Amino acid sequence: MATYLITGASRGIGLELTKQLLELPTSEVSKVFAVARNAETDAIKQLSQKYPDRLYPVSASVDNTASVQHAVEAVRAKLNGQSLDVLVNNAGISGETKGLIKDMELDQLTQILDVNVVGVQRVTAAFFPLLEQGTQKKIINVSSGLGSFAYAPHVVSMPSDAYNISKTALNMLTVRWAHQYAEAGFTIVSISPGWIKTDMGTAHADLSIEQGVAAVKKLILETGKEQNGKFLNIKVPKTDEMMFDYDGKEIPW
């Protein structure tokens, strides 16, 4: 009966993950806290009506400390003495870098780092006391293969410099947390969800939202302490139409 908290839960991967987790029996997933800048969207309202005793929408912005602290208090109240077992840091933004990296706008880099890296630190630190009381003690940071140094030569032409840099920084943040809290029983990993057909991923992506998130969910459920501090890929059978491989193995840093 694990309790989950998912950021960026109003759309895309976060919304679909919330939906798929709630489809599991209560014996596996008892509560899901859907955190989003706007947690009152029609999609979340529909899920709330379907799962009124298991889904708890929470409005918060990961780039705002006061907002996150208010979210902690709201979640603590709804837990009513229960612990928080799994945190999925999914909220993130992208952005096209115009021209070469010398032309990258500093405001864009600052904004993306604030959401994709500082936001994860802000959320993780704020909810950590609740996670310490949990039985699973899992923190899942949704990264990207674009943050891999090893893959960098293969995606040099992609206009996503700021986004790539942010995901590389997120991976180091993951490793620092993982190493410092391994002895406390935590499992803290970065995962690449693959190229999924979302607003961010575009309609040209490799995987449907249902297929990609099903693989993400499976990875989250199966990840244990032996994976602590690792960068993990989802597992989806390769087809000729796919640009990338999803082999379920560790991704090189």
TrEMBL record:
Organism, scientific name: Aureobasidium namibiae CBS 147.97
GO terms for MF: oxidoreductase activity
Pfam families: adh_short (PF00106)
Full protein name: NAD(P)-binding protein
One cellular-component annotation, GO: cytoplasm
Similarity comment: family membership: Belongs to the short-chain dehydrogenases/reductases (SDR) family.
Domain of life of the organism encoding this protein: Eukaryota
